[in-house]
Amino acid sequence: MTDIRVGGVPEHFNLPWHIAKGKGLFEAKGLNMTWKDYPGGTGAMIKDLNEGSLDVAVLLTEGIVKDISSGGDSQLVAVYVQSPLVWAILTGSGQSIEKVEDLDNKIWAISRMGSGSHLMAVLLAEQQGWNKENLRFEIVNNLEGAREALREKPEAPARANGFLWEKFMTKPLVDQGEFRRVGEIPTPWPCFVVAVRRPFLAQHSEAVRDLLDALRPVTA
């Protein structure tokens, strides 16, 4: 059996990995696939790929492409979700932000530098014609951190004004009145890809191929 450590965000589109695991499809290929949830998103997975504590990641295209172009030690092996990801443009309900334009020169909550929430804020600034030199960021690690950063409190103002996260994952928070959605922005590329740590791929290319083959029956 070949051990393979796979990671992804704890969201609905990664359900096929758990279904395939439950059906024994990976074991049938001689693979011991262990899954790790990454609430911190793409940036956290990239960190673990580069540090060697994760072998395979299902992550945002924009984040891993940026990391590879900057010398990251991973390789793209497959497109996982072909359709674009729709990012919600959010603010705290207690803030005075009412439309996308109000977020110019404001502070963005991001999970970490190089993450999807960071890169999509830069893309939004480009699309809106804002001066990217004026972008400011508050690192919040994950969705829970963003909830805290965008919240207005009697004793202190919010630490951030805007936040970008997947539209449907944040819909409950919008419906509950905690976040206000002022717009949305789709990625102009396939949203999720599969990346593999290069040293692992060099040693286990056949196992990686078998991993993807085992997943196909539940994604077709």
Summarize this entry quickly.
This protein has 220 residues and is of the alpha/beta class. The chain is built from 8 helices and 10 strands. It has helices at residues 15-22, 42-51, 61-69, 116-128, 143-150, 167-175, 198-203, 205-219, and strands at 2-8, 31-37, 56-60, 74-81, 86-92, 107-110, 136-139, 162-166, 179-186, 192-197.
Describe this structure in words.
The protein is α/β, with parallel strands linked by helices. Helices cover 35% and strands 28% of the residues. It has eight helices and ten strands. The protein has helices at residues 15-22, 42-51, 61-69, 116-128, 143-150, 167-175, 198-203, 205-219, and strands spanning 2-8, 31-37, 56-60, 74-81, 86-92, 107-110, 136-139, 162-166, 179-186, 192-197. A five-stranded mixed sheet has the order 2-1-3-10-4, sandwiched between helices. A five-stranded mixed sheet has the order 7-6-8-5-9. The two termini are 26 Å apart. The relative contact order is 0.22. The mean pLDDT is 94.
